[in-house]
Design goal:
GO molecular function: chromatin binding; DNA binding; DNA-binding transcription factor activity, RNA polymerase II-specific; zinc ion binding
CATH superfamily of one domain: Classic Zinc Finger
Order of helices and strands: EEHEEHEEHEEHEEHEEHEEHEEHEE
Subcellular location: Nucleus
Main location: nucleus
Mean pLDDT: 87
Keywords: DNA-binding, Metal-binding, Nucleus, Repeat, Transcription, Transcription regulation, Zinc, Zinc-finger
CATH architecture of one domain: 2-Layer Sandwich
Number of strands: 18
CATH topology of one domain: Double Stranded RNA Binding Domain
CATH class of one domain: Alpha Beta
Low-confidence stretches: none
Pfam families: zf-C2H2 (PF00096), zf-met (PF12874)
C-alpha cells in the first residue's frame, strides 16, 4: 500500500495517493471550462459539470424527483425512509445530512462564523447574515404579489401574505384562538397564564403587556398625547 507522509492515510494505488496529496498542497489542476472553478480530482470536476447541464439521470422511485448525482439521490431517499444517521452528542437530535448536524452543533458551541461588516452582529447561517444585511440597506427585494408592499426579508413577506390568505397557523391551546404570528400567540398566552412581567416602579401595579404599562405610566406623568381636533382637549389614550 501507498502511505501519505503527512497524515498516514493509506491507498492501494499510487495515483490515488497522488490525488490525495493535493488536499495538503492545495493544488487543483482540473478546471471547469464554464465557470473556471478548480478541483483536485477529475472525478470531482465531472460531478461539478452536471451543475451546468440540465441532465438529471438519477430518479427517485418514490416521488419521481430527479437528481444530478447518485449521492444527492441517496441523501434525498432518507426523507422517505425516515433515516437520520447523524445524531447530536449533546441533545440527541438527529439529522439526514451531516452538514445540518454541523450547523446544529453551533447552537451548543455558540459559534457564529458569519459576521456583519457594518455592525459586527454574528450569525450561525450565511442566509441569516444575508437577511440581516438588508436591514442596513434600503433594498427591499421581496414584494407582495397582492398589494406590492415590499420587504427586506423573505420571512416578513411570508408573514404578510397571511393577511391576504387569512391563514393563522398559531393556535391557542386553551381557547383555540388563532394568530398570524407566533409572537402574537405568545402575548395572548399570558392572559391565560396570568403572567404579569411588567411592573410599575411607582405604584408596583403589574401588567401582562409592556404597552399597557406604558399607558399606565401616563397617569403618574400626566402625559396626554392624544388631543381632540375640535376642542384641543387631551387624553391618556386614543380610544
Amino acid at each position: 500500500p501507498y502511505s501519505c507522509e503527512i497524515c498516514d492515510k493509506k491507498f492501494f494505488y499510487s495515483y490515488n495517493l497522488k490525488s490525495h496529496k493535493r488536499i495538503h498542497t492545495g493544488e487543483k489542476p482540473y478546471a471547469c471550462k464554464v465557470c473556471n472553478m478548480k478541483f483536485t480530482g477529475v472525478g470531482n470536476l465531472s460531478k461539478h459539470l452536471k451543475v451546468h447541464s440540465d441532465e438529471k439521470p438519477y430518479h427517485c422511485k418514490v416521488c419521481k424527483m430527479k437528481f444530478r448525482s447518485s449521492s444527492n439521490l441517496k441523501q434525498h431517499f432518507k426523507i422517505h425512509t425516515g433515516e437520520k444517521p447523524y445524531a447530536c452528542t449533546v441533545c440527541d437530535m438527529k439529522f439526514i445530512v451531516i452538514g445540518n448536524l454541523k450547523t446544529h452543533l453551533r447552537i451548543h458551541s455558540g459559534e457564529r462564523p458569519y459576521s456583519c461588516n457594518i455592525c459586527g452582529m454574528k450569525f450561525i447561517l450565511a442566509q441569516h447574515l444575508k437577511n440581516h444585511t438588508n436591514i442596513h440597506s434600503s433594498e427591499k427585494p421581496y414584494a407582495c404579489e397582492v398589494c406590492d408592499k415590499k420587504f427586506n426579508m423573505i420571512g416578513n413577506l411570508k408573514k404578510h401574505l397571511r393577511i391576504h390568505s387569512g391563514e393563522k397557523p398559531y393556535s391557542c391551546e386553551y381557547c383555540s384562538k388563532k394568530f398570524i404570528e407566533n409572537g402574537a400567540l405568545t402575548k395572548h398566552l399570558k392572559i391565560h397564564k396570568g403572567e404579569k412581567r411588567y411592573s410599575c416602579e411607582i405604584c408596583e401595579k403589574k401588567f401582562i403587556e409592556g404597552g399597557n404599562l406604558k399607558r399606565h405610566l401616563r397617569i403618574h406623568s400626566g402625559e396626554k398625547p392624544y388631543s381632540c381636533d375640535y376642542c384641543e382637549k387631551k387624553f391618556f389614550e386614543s380610544g
